[in-house]
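PROTOCOL LOG
Step 1. Enter all chains and additional molecules of the complex.
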Amino acid sequence: MTVLILAREFDPQVDRLVEELRERDVPAFRTDLVAFPQALDLESRLGADGVDGVLKTPYRDLCLGEVRSVWYRHPSHFELPAGMSGPERRHATAEARCGFAGVLNCLDVLWVNYPGSESDAFKPWQLDVARRCGLSVPESLVTNKPDAVRDFAATVGGPLVVKALSAAMLVESGRLQTSYTRLVEPAELDDLAGVETTLHFFQQFVPKAYEARVTVVGDRVFGAAIHAGSEAARVDWRADYHALEYSLVEPPEPVVAGMLGFMRHFDLSFGAFDFVVTPDEEWVMLECNPFGAYGWLEDALDLPITSALADLLMDGGTAR
Amino acid sequence: MPEHPVSPWRDPLVSSGDRFPLGPPRGILVDCQEGPSGSETRPFSLRHAVAGPRVDTPPSWHYIYCHERQIALVHGGNGEPVPMLRHTKPGPTQGGTSFTTDGDPNNPPPEEMNPPDHQDD
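Step 2. Run joint prediction.
Step 3. Record the structure below.
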């Protein structure tokens, strides 16, 4: 039985898992959908006997019936033949996407994570589910109304941050731009131009003793405390990785129970949770990234996350 | 414990792209030469966006994907290809380290979370 890995070719965390599986003599079939249709074929028959089929690359074949689990780590878009028109390309993309999704969805095996579950986990919904699972969450506001921001600021009575609801990256003028979480300066409340252009996500800035990234693999929990050494990192630690120090931390049991409830709700087997730990040692959940990176923490703190992931994918017994 | 939500697979408002998100081809962000608009139309959340590298900058890592081993290789000290993981030092990205981190341009989100600025036609 084989672990199917759908991921990009450049992904060091996937390399690490492939090596781990190889050392355990567990077959793995890794491919990126960018290879379709040039170097990846799918042939699947559906009928009275169910679904069967094969994924083929120039290097190996995989019978779909041999799949024990799937690691879906954001494979990249199909690379369709050059020369297609735009409408043809969109049609072909939709056909390929629906075909792959439709066939692979028939695999009654464990997915880490199931693609629909990941895209389900919008941040506002995450916070509500987290609250219902017993986790503390910050006061938050989603709005396109500047007056609502001012009212929220008055209610909160302390600093606010603005953060992205979706991805924090975009490309402008040929350059990557990143919109990190940042403090809203008090003077900005008088000039909130642009809030009305789309929905914005404002949040109470929670006082921090430190932050924690807790990686959950199945029901195993790996906690890392993140200590920020710069002003930028104290607001959003992604803004200044070089100013970070790490230590092991064990989340309190109610927090673990809350995270596991959250995972069950969204049907996730892997999640990277971000918390603020206040000076009073309250754990306040900010968000969960179902696609979160973990390799750098694994090495910094010797956390066996890859091993846990391999265990989970090898077990493969917990189908959706 | 909250009840399980309606599966997105049964939700007619959820697109196939949402159900099966894919990243930018080969993880390379789509270039766009269009610059910011004016203060009247620029979202507030982008007011202090931080400029990163040009997207057409060649990546700092040079790897060969080994289809046999299904991992990335780099040239070691003696010129022989070695697994990138064993050759590079751990640490947060930026120039020849073995990991991608959250927010790393080498670890872009699925395209549906950050749609390309240019359509195909």
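Step 4. Note key features.
The first helix of chain A runs from residue 12 to 23.
Chain A has a mean pLDDT of 93.
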